[in-house]
């Protein structure tokens, strides 16, 4: 049932009411009966309710206190929902009971990247993360080496996760409809690579893509890496000195990081 809400654009409030879509989100999020689910942004509680029907426990954050009354009614009907009326970005994830949990959330788009990186900082707590995000951002997360969307976030996320777009959600599904379509993006940790210092790896990727039209060598030399060492590393990876960052696969970026690290 669609009700009237005082939608706050500044909080990224675009709500979902279609039960078929909400059930599809729970399925795409791999929700199982014994799971604990973390939701960021309960909104009207429509997804929270579906999650509570399909999982053992739902921990849900909502920053907008005007939704408190409505959401507390849900909490009465579903004792397996735990609401936190706080800013998720300030939350101490270590204090929540999240072992082997999953994230399933239609997140506020204005903080997509901070939310993802906050979750990454506690990745040992999560089996999977399904987020509904802007379509273009999802394409960047999932894009492969050599495509125009492939860049910093593609490499960083794919160094940790298998990334898959499970479905496109047209803007008309939201109330109010945003300007662009969205996509559900599933991130499943793969443990393929051992990265000792993730911050140093992230820094290398940021510097590698500093200027997309430049060669990798030029970008890294500008960032004070030693040119001879870069050329030697590229040679070992069978890349020419003229290679551009978007032509280097995630796996090879990990190898490059290992070759260049002091
Ligand atoms: N889950 C609901 C749905 O699917 O209809 C609402 C999704 S809406 C895109 C995002 C929700 O996140 C809004 O209700 C908004 O108030 C809330 N929100 C925004 N910033 C937040 C933050 N920093 N911490 C917690 N919730 C936040």
Oligomeric state of the chains in view: single chain
Shape summary: elongated
Structural class: alpha/beta
Helix count from the secondary structure assignment = 10
Main beta-sheet annotation = 7 strands, mixed
**Order of adjacent strands in the largest pleated sheet:** 4-3-2-5-6-9-7
Task: Summarize the entry for a quick read.
The chain has 10 helices and 9 strands.
Produce the secondary structure layout:
Elements: E1 15-16, H1 19-28, E2 36-40, H2 46-54, E3 57-61, H3 68-77, E4 81-84, E5 101-106, H4 112-120, E6 126-134, H5 135-142, H6 152-158, E7 161-169, E8 174-175, E9 182-189, H7 198-208, H8 216-222, H9 227-236, H10 250-260
Parallel strand pairs: 2-3, 2-5, 3-4, 5-6
Antiparallel strand pairs: 1-8, 6-9, 7-9
Helix pairs in contact: 1-2
Task: Explain what the structure shows.
- This protein is an alpha/beta fold.
- The protein is 35% helix and 19% strand.
- The chain contains 10 helices and 9 strands.
- The strands form 2 sheets. A 7-stranded mixed beta sheet has the order 4-3-2-5-6-9-7.
- Helix 1 crosses helix 2.
- The radius of gyration is 20 Å and the shape is elongated.
- The model has no long low-confidence stretch (mean pLDDT 95).
- The structure holds S-adenosylmethionine.
- The site of S-adenosylmethionine has 23 residues, from strand 1 and helix 2.
């Amino acid at each position: 049932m669609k009700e009237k809400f005082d939608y706050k654009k500044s909080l990224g409030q675009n709500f979902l009411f279609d039960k078929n879509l909400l059930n599809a989100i729970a399925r795409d999020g791999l929700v199982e009966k014994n799971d604990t689910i973390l939701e960021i942004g309960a909104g009207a509680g429509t997804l929270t309710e579906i999650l509570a029907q399909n999982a053992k426990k739902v921990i849900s954050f909502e920053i907008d206190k005007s939704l408190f009354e409505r959401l507390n009614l849900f909490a009465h009907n579903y004792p397996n929902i735990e609401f936190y009326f706080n800013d998720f970005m300030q939350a101490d994830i270590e204090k929540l009971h999240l072992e082997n949990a999953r994230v399933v959330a239609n997140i506020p788009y204005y903080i997509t990247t901070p939310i993802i990186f906050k979750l990454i900082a506690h990745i040992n707590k999560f089996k999977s993360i399904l987020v509904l995000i802007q379509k273009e951002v999802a394409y960047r997360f999932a894009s492969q080496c050599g495509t125009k969307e492939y860049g910093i976030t593609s490499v960083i996320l794919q160094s940790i996760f298998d990334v898959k777009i499970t479905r496109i959600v047209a803007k008309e599904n939201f109330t109010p409809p945003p300007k662009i379509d969205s996509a559900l993006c599933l991130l499943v940790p793969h443990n393929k690579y051992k990265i000792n210092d993730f911050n140093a790896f992230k820094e290398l990727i940021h510097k590698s893509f500093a200027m997309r039209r430049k060669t990798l060598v030029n970008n890294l030399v500008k960032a004070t890496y030693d040119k001879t060492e870069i050329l030697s590393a590229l040679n070992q990876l069978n890349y020419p000195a003229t290679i551009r960052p978007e032509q280097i696969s995630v796996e090879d970026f990990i190898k490059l990081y290992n070759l260049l690290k002091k």
